[in-house]
Amino acid sequence: MTDFTMNVGDNGVAIITWDVADKSMNVLRQESFGELEALIDEVLGNESIKGAVITSGKDTFAGGMDLNTLGTIRENAGDEPAKALFDFTMMGHTFLRKIERAGMDPKTNKGAKPIAAALPGTALGIGLELPLATHRIFAADNPKAKIGLPEIMVGIFPGMGGTTRFVRKMGFMAASQYLLQGKMVDPKKAKAAGIIDEVVADPVAAATEWVLCASDADLVKPWDAKGYKMPGGDPYHPQGFMTYVGASAMVNANTWGVYPAAKALLSACYEGALVPFDTALKIEARWFTNVLMNPSSSAMIQSLFINKEALEKGANRPDVPDQTVRKVGVLGAGMMGAGIALVSAQAGMDVVLIDTNQEAADRGKAYTEAHLDKGMKRGKVTAEKKEAMLGRITATTDLNTLSDVDLIIEAVFEDVGVKAEMTKKVEAIIPEDAIFASNTSTLPITGLAEASVRKDQFIGIHFFSPVEKMALVEIIKGQDTGPRAVAKALDYVRQIRKTPIVVNDERFFYANRCIIPYINEGVMMAGEGVGLPLLDHAAQLLGFPVGPIQLVDETSMDLGAKIAKATMAAMGDAYPKSIADDVTFWMVDEGRLGRKAKAGFFDYDEKGKRLGYWEGFNQKFTKLEDQPELIEVQHRLIFSQVLEAVRALEAGVLEDIREGDVGAILGWGFMPWSGGPFSWLDIVGAPWAAERCDELTAKFGDRFTCPPLLREMAEKGQSFYGRFGPQAEKAA
Amino acid sequence: MTEAYIYDAVRTPRGKGRKDGSLHEVSSLSLSTTVLNALKERNNLEGHAVEDVIWGNVTQVKENGGCLARTAVLASDLDERIPGLAINRFCASGMEAVNIAANQVKGGAGKAYIAGGVEAMSRVPMGSDGAAMAVDPSIAMDMYFVPQGISADIIATEYGFTRDQADQLAVESQRRAAAAWEDNRFNKSIVAVKDVNGLTILDEDEYMRPGTDMQSLGGLKPAFKEQGEVMPGFDKLALMKYPHLEKINHIHHAGNSSGIVDGSAGVLVGNKEFGEEYGLKPRAVIRQTAKIGLDPTIMLTGPVPATQKILQDSGMAISDIDLFEVNEAFASVVLRFQQAFGVDPELINVNGGSIAMGHPLGATGAIIIGTLLDELERQDKEVGLATLCIASGMGAATIIERV
Question: Tell me, what's the ipTM?
Answer without folding.
Answer: 0.94
